[in-house]
Amino acid sequence: MPFVWIPGNIQKVTVPEGRRGPWSVERFQSKAKRFGWGPSARTFTRLVHAGRGIVMSDTPNEMRDHREAVQHAHGSCLINGLGLGMILAAALRKPDVTDVTVVETNADVIALVGPTYDADPRLTIVHADAFAYQPPPGRRYAMAWHDIWDRPCSTNLDPMAALMRKFAPIADWQGCWAEDRSVRRAAQEAADTPAAAETLLRYLQSSVQPRGELPI
């Protein structure tokens, strides 16, 4: 059975099941044995939109997607996208994290998920669009994590680059969920789809400083 490495701070969420507008939080069972957590641990939680499907879950694969953000979390942190709060909770478990600001565009998601975490005085949840949000004057973040996409695809690259440019002057480290897989998808599509090729070229020529080597 393959080993699945998960940073210790990232754990399954405790958000209760519920429904608000088109959004729902649901428990589900996974039959995947590769997780290696035993039968009792194969119950997970997912955030579902009635029209868009599964937006996020707390499976080990999803946890691994966020491990770099958790490793860099310290001091003042910014998270664009609340989701299930899995990364938020992991950041709050670190004693060297002084405060976390979460920017979430959807009030229903905040109502469903926010109460699980809002007892921690270090947390501020802002109902705003990540592209429009203006941090308080003088604020600087040790870590900024952008997670506003449902799945990896080539069309993510333009908004990823825009967010990275926006927060570059005030973030010591920042990253985007599934950036590497979105780049890979654009590279695969580029041979047959001019729009994907243009998007990829635009991304590579942008001022974005990628995290490590791009997988193309």
Features:
single chain, 216 residues, alpha/beta, Rossmann fold, 2 domains, 5-stranded parallel β-sheet, 4-stranded antiparallel β-sheet, disordered C terminus
Structure commentary:
The protein is an alpha/beta fold and 216 residues long. The chain folds into two domains: 18-62, no CATH class; 63-205, 3-Layer(aba) Sandwich (Rossmann fold). 28% of the residues lie in helices and 22% in strands. The strands form two sheets. It has a five-stranded parallel beta sheet with strand order 7-6-5-8-9, sandwiched between helices. Strands 1-2-3-4 form a four-stranded antiparallel beta sheet, with helices on one face. A hairpin with a 3-residue loop joins strand 3 (43-49) and strand 4. Helix 6 crosses helix 7. The longest helix is centred in the C-terminal third of the chain and has 12 residues, at 179-190.
Element layout with pairings:
Layout: E1 18-20, E2 23-29, E3 43-49, E4 53-57, H1 60-65, H2 67-72, E5 75-80, H3 86-92, E6 97-104, H4 107-113, E7 123-127, E8 143-146, H5 157-167, E9 174-176, H6 179-190, H7 194-205
Parallel strand pairs: 5-6, 5-8, 6-7, 8-9
Antiparallel strand pairs: 1-2, 2-3, 3-4
Helix pairs in contact: 6-7
> Tally the helices: what do you get?
7
Average pLDDT number? 88
Helix and strand element order: EEEEHHEHEHEEHEHH
- The helical percent reads 25-40%
Largest sheet: 5 strands, parallel
Poorly predicted ranges (pLDDT <50, ≥5 residues)?
1-5, 210-216
Which structural class is indicated by helix and strand composition? Answer: alpha/beta
Number of strands: 9
The CATH architecture of the largest domain comes to 3-Layer(aba) Sandwich
CA(first)-CA(last) distance: 29 Å
